[in-house]
Amino acid sequence: MSDWTRTDFDVRRLAPEETREAAGLHERELPHEFLTRFGTKFLARYYRAFVESPDAVALAAVDARSGELEGVLISTLDTRAHYSNLVRLYGPALARAVGLQALRHPSLARDLLKTRLLRYARGIVRSLAKSPKSTQTDDESPESPAERVGFLTYVAVSGESRGRGIGGALLAAYERMAREANLDRLELVTMTDERGAGPFYIRAGWTYAGERVSRSGERYALYIRFLED
Fold first, then answer.
1. How far apart, in whole angstroms, are the C-alpha atoms of residue 229 and residue 208?
2. What does the chain look like in DSSP terms, one character per residue?
3. What pLDDT does residue 114 have?
4. How many C-beta atoms lie closer than 10 Å to residue 57's C-beta?
5. Distance between CA atoms of residues 78 and 92, nearest Å
6. Angstrom distances, CA of residue 163 to CA of 24, 32, 159
7. Which of 84, 91, 102, 119 lies in disulfide reach of 132, CB 3.0 to 4.6 Å?
8. What is the pLDDT of residue 115?
9. In this predicted structure, what is the pLDDT of residue 47?
10. Are the C-beta atoms of 195 and 223 separated by less than 8 Å?
11. Average pLDDT of the chain?
């Protein structure tokens, strides 16, 4: 990955031993994200699942001199396969971390029950019911396969390191890996208010594709990146 090197920072794969540091960066820079409320231990395990998954990407931007972590990106190359394996391999540990945080923080428990628990449960059931490597739906024939779509899960850049092109370099590295994996396009969602990063993604070449409302009532903006040859 030497061609991802910049003069003052390098982009490379996130190492397993860096997942706790990545979780801390996530907590500092994405405090509004719901998963942040589950705590460092949960986030470190969540990031490790991306590091170890053959169907996901976990990237780090590190200072070229000090080696300090300045930015992280996690995303999928095969979303269904990744989350199926995440549930199977990491589900119990993640569930324990969520349960402990909910016990410690009643407000989190209330919000979890009210807005997320049913959606998470349905997702787990779908993940366990599907073959991890199956990308074909019931309505598709072998002659007309589904588009291969990756999903950008999170990008976080340290506040003092912004403005140096780190976020753009992480995106470019992910897009390169997605092309090498023969994906057709990438998708992401971000908040529609000032906490969202829509203008950043537009500048990076992504296309706004409308607003979406989750089952828990939250509004998100959908962005798409088409991967032309």
1. 21
2. -GGG--SSEEEEEPPGGGHHHHHHHHHHH-TTSGGGGG-HHHHHHHHHHHHH-TTEEEEEEEETTT--EEEEEEEESSHHHHHHHHHHHHHHHHHHHHHHHHHH-HHHHHHIIIIIHHHHHHHHHHHHHS-TT----TT--TTSPPP-EEEEEEEEE-GGGTTSSHHHHHHHHHHHHHHHTT-SEEEEEEESSTTS-HHHHHHTT-EEEEEEE-TTS-EEEEEEEE---
3. 62
4. 24
5. 22
6. 20, 21, 9
7. 84
8. 62
9. 97
10. no
11. 83
Q: In which residue are the tokens 């998963």 written?
A: 35
- The tokens for 57 are 């990407």
Provide the token pair at 46.
Answer: 């969540």
The token duo for 183 is 């994906």
Tokens of residue 83, six digits: 């989350």
* Token output for 16: 């397993």
Residue 171 one-letter amino acid: L
